[in-house]
Structures
1.
Amino acid sequence: MISKNVIIRQIVDQLTEQLGALAGASRAMHADASDEQNKAEDQYDTRGLETAYLASSQARLATETEEALACYQTLELRKFRHDTPIDLTALVELESKGKRALYFLGPKSGGLEIRHKETEVLVITPESPLGQELVGKKVADRIKFQTRGAA
């Protein structure tokens, strides 16, 4: 099984990579928004305004990524026993219809997929629907979880 330290290291690596890409995209958007060619030619020309909105969204996403990165860089991993309720930093294995899946309950960045060798782990947060169902449960507890799509 994959160690939580490996998971955290890969989350930090992915967030660092995302932050670099977002910073570059944000700089490019800001440059485009203030470019002379994007000045409105008439009252219906919104290219500059649209580019400014995109730049603002990129900057907001970069800030969220920075916060998540800082959170994971200082995250203390808890050790869980069979009788310990699921909470932040738990690595949870779920079985459904004969298939097993691993989930890491993290404070931010739900949806990140971590791959190490042949193991795949999906980061979820306590605020996600699955995270809400898992928090407080213990080993061998059952949950009933409805997903969208084919059953």
2.
Amino acid sequence: MKKNFELIYEGKAKKVFSHDHADKVIIEFKDDATAFNALKKSKFDGKGELNCQISSRIFELLGKNNIPTHFLGIKSEKTIIAQKIRIIPLEIVLRNTAYGSLCRQTTIKPGTPLEKPLIDIYLKNDELNDPLITKDRIELMKILESKDLELIIDLTLKVNKILKIFFENIQLKLVDFKLEFGYNAKNEILLADEISPDNCRLWDLKQKNDTIVSLDKDRFRNDLGGLIEAYGEINKRINDFMNSIK
């Protein structure tokens, strides 16, 4: 990263730098991996590049399907150019299959297909450990207006429809995923952050006998090993599929 670009923000997996244009930023994907609110940390060479490439292709796909995103283009192997946004402090999680915290907090068994997508909303706050939050609490805290929350939920459902089909085409099951949104300079709501194996649960559909093989950050969370190999496999399938439909 050139020295004349100011570091604006550094998160667990990305750095955000200033851009020559005031309404744009440069986002660099890091090789760091974190889990359990950063209680577990490690670094994997090549992870940042893989997440950058995967996110870029998915943002391109969503943009072609009329989903407004902050993505403007790839700058380098590990960086993208994006619209500068004010992040809404909410994490929108959509679940197609029961797994993870949903099963720990309810009596639903892991792997149970959900009759319809379930949306859980979490307050983006590390000090509070990103708690599950209700619509009434969102309104009480004046985080955003109800019409904007409805728009975000509608966009999340649309993203799910697009990504479910896309991932099925490359033999991956979209179990669940997390999205973040923000406002740009025109006060428009855009999909932001990233869409990668870091914030999507993806199971390999090529496996037999209903064996669950995770190709996502669960390989790090659950000490399964092979994180880079899994991310690399996803990137390869995406590129092969995109090239086949050109």
3.
Amino acid sequence: IMAQPALINGKAYDFTQIIVSILGVPTAGITALNYTEEQEKTNNFGAGTRPVSRGHGAIEASGSIELSMNEVESLRDASPDGSLLKIPAFNITVTYLNLQKVVTHKLKNVEFTNDGVETSQGDTDIKRTFDLVISDIQYR
């Protein structure tokens, strides 16, 4: 019997292993999460045809989250009038529970930039994607 070859890169990070905490509460009704940072970087030119330095713009963080209506309605309790737009800035913690290396990312000073409901006939779980504004992302 041949030995089973070892996995070269070990176990992959996967969606089933993440814990997302919003307002300090683990959130089970999340079906998608996206967060990113962008920074403009520009070559500066002087004499000659090659750059002489590089300028860096501000780092802008943004993201989106897809939530079930059950989670949305729970979050509405943190708002003075039920609107997601009125929830004060909060943090989102994302923990990736990989046995090889547990990783935690923190989305800081998050706010919703839109609110509402999308549904149609046949929905068995009403979900919606909400855009987020984020001050910064801590990867470590």
4.
Amino acid sequence: MLRWSYEYLALVEKVTKTVLSLSPKLILDFGCGDGYLTLRLLHLNEHVKVVGVDISDRALMFARAFCGDSERAAFYHSIGEIPQNLLPFDVVIAMEVLEHIPPDDLPNVVEQVWKALRHDGWFVVSVPTTNIALSPKHYQHFSLNSLQTVLGGRFILLTYEYVHRIGLASKLIGRVLANRFVIVNNKFLLSLLTKLYRSLVMTANERNGVHLLAVFRRKED
């Protein structure tokens, strides 16, 4: 769990920083899961409102519990359920979501996201790359080209980066965090591992990155 958490938290940090740099007021967290990203956005910017969408009843139950009674958060099962007074969004986020959608359904999802955005809105996407083996829960992994193929009809690529570098440093940190002999709970050691992770593993490139994080701009119709 600790080994995976570094990777997940790095991705959340990168996505959050990217989204908030766009100065949005209204955000759609598409495929919000348990609402952790939604909660981070609410905590880091007291002026934003976030709408979460997820098809899972269980995920939405956790998301609502995480966010409590915040008037700046609302959750729905689909984009179609969102009230008109909450549209359009400044930013839509899809963090590790597109790989879970059957390829034949992706064009319809892309169209829904496009319609939910304001005319100059942003679509912030993170996906697993083809540098790692396909998960049984995923329909596909993406290269930059294949992601542009999926989104290019409705969106223009602005920026991209890769997160979590595959390599020796990643393996060593993972083995220290998760092994049969030692449970790492020493604050100094955890702080050191975190610094090493940030400097050696967090940032990656096209050849060794596990996740691709890209920002797209909505095209005019």
